[in-house]
Amino acid sequence: MSDSCPDPAGSVGGFLCRAGQHLRAAAIENPRLEARLLLSTAMGVETTALLRDSRAPVPPEAARRFAEMLKRRLAHEPMGFVLGHQGFWTLDLAVSPATLIPRADSEAIVEAALQGPAPARVLDLGTGTGCLLLAVLSEHPAAFGIGVDLSPEAAALAAANARRNGLEERATFLAGSWAESLLGGFDLVLSNPPYIESAVIPGLMPEVALHEPARALDGGADGLDAYRLIVADLPRLLRPQGRAVLELGQGQAPAVSALARAVGLEVLGTHADLGGVDRALILRHP
């Protein structure tokens, strides 16, 4: 790769320019933005600080950290894992390979949940980082919530995220298989279950297929395995007039709605994400 960077190799501008070239060559989207995020994290400064003097030297220790982070990103490790955290809703959440990285699309589930009455008790099935539960609790200061994940590492991470965001007194997290150990009585049930068809997963972008946990992605042959289990349990878990908001894959609303109606739940509608995809299915216990 030819070096067309105007700033010296050891400077802020030099690091950003050369890193951007490498990221672009690796087919990373937004290479300049990602280079700034990596360097600002390595230096422990805000990204705006990098713009003040492009010829300022990068300290050796920061340069070493930056090189390690850049190597991981060039191997298509997700940016959230490289940085160690991810923004979601109004929260900053720690992430790890034990969980999916929270995505902006999933904020549609929070938006849909907030359209209904304020819940007192909230359940989040397959909680991962805790993003859905913690976002809803942050908007309902009188609510209490339980998050469940099959992975003990994920449940521990979600508990840490509750502490990180000052919500630990109103949230508890358990390791278990869906709601098997819970009795019910919830006003609101949230879930972002695995919903990708098994055969599709190897063809996903490498950040997802190679680095995020398969158990949190794989929804079985038709993508509906987890929905069958969750929806069948909702009448037991929900109070009368209680609601459930489930994240959907593209085009899954009709099939999951049919599962819900088959167990006597009302389908209140769907809520689209910013891309216009029906991302949240809203159900109610009649």
Automatic annotation (TrEMBL):
The protein's enzyme class: transferase
UniProt-listed CDD domains: AdoMet_MTases (cd02440)
Tagged with keyword Transferase: yes
Domain Release factor glutamine methyltransferase N-terminal residue range list: 19-84
EC numbers, comma separated: 2.1.1.297
Limits of the Methyltransferase domain: 121-246
PROSITE patterns with a match to the protein in the record: N6_MTASE (PS00092)
Coiled coil stretches, renumbered: none
Sequence positions that bind substrate: N192, P193, P194, Y195
Keyword vocabulary terms for this entry: Methyltransferase, S-adenosyl-L-methionine, Transferase
Catalysed conversion reaction: L-glutaminyl-[peptide chain release factor] + S-adenosyl-L-methionine = N(5)-methyl-L-glutaminyl-[peptide chain release factor] + S-adenosyl-L-homocysteine + H(+)
GO biological process assignments: methylation
Residues engaged in binding S-adenosyl-L-methionine: G126, T127, G128, T129, G130, D149, W178, N192
GO molecular function: nucleic acid binding; peptide chain release factor N(5)-glutamine methyltransferase activity
Pfam families in the record: Methyltransf_31 (PF13847), PrmC_N (PF17827)
Entry similarity comment: Belongs to the protein N5-glutamine methyltransferase family. PrmC subfamily.
PANTHER family (alphabetical): HEMK METHYLTRANSFERASE, MTRF1L RELEASE FACTOR GLUTAMINE METHYLTRANSFERASE
Cited function: Methylates the class 1 translation termination release factors RF1/PrfA and RF2/PrfB on the glutamine residue of the universally conserved GGQ motif.
NCBIfam families (UniProt xref): hemK_fam, RF_mod_PrmC
Protein name: Release factor glutamine methyltransferase
Lineage, top ranks: Bacteria, Pseudomonadati, Pseudomonadota, Alphaproteobacteria, Acetobacterales
